[in-house]
Amino acid sequence: MNTAHLTEDQLAAALTGSQDDVLCLHLAECDLCRAEHERLAAAVAAMRATADSAARQPDWFWAGQRAQASARLQPPRRWFAVPALAACALVLLSLVLLSGGIGPQPEVTKAAVDTDDLVLRQIESSLSQSAPQALAPAALLSEDFARAAEQSKPSSKEKGNVL
User: Fold this and answer.
1) Domain count, the chain
2) For the whole prediction, is pTM greater than 0.85?
3) Is the pLDDT at 163 greater than 60, yes or no?
4) 90 is a domain residue
5) Can you give the residue range of the structural domain that contains 130?
């Protein structure tokens, strides 16, 4: 008799129906390995019986199981999206209405055109001036000083007489 006992892998192979002569011979000769093999075979048989009895359910039970599984696989419905979209639409509508984007545009009146024309003329006149309007009095004084300075200069005739 061989003193080495079977490994777990060898016992599992024997449980699955392996026809290995060495395994069969060892199980026939070794009481300890044969007892372990019988214990494992009984556990596998008990598990099969439990699984078979659990599987014997009425059709309505399995229909409910399928419905629950398919409900878990489907994405959840997002009911919050409907109110959020409605709120966005209301905000956009109010912005459009408040900004005057929809509806009759105000007519441009002749007074508004005249006012615009007047403003443009004032801008043109201020750009054509050499000094800003705020400095106009100072510009007048400087022109007066320049004229007075020219008048006080002796002319070329007077320069000749002075020498």
Assistant:
1) 2
2) no
3) no
4) no
5) 109-154
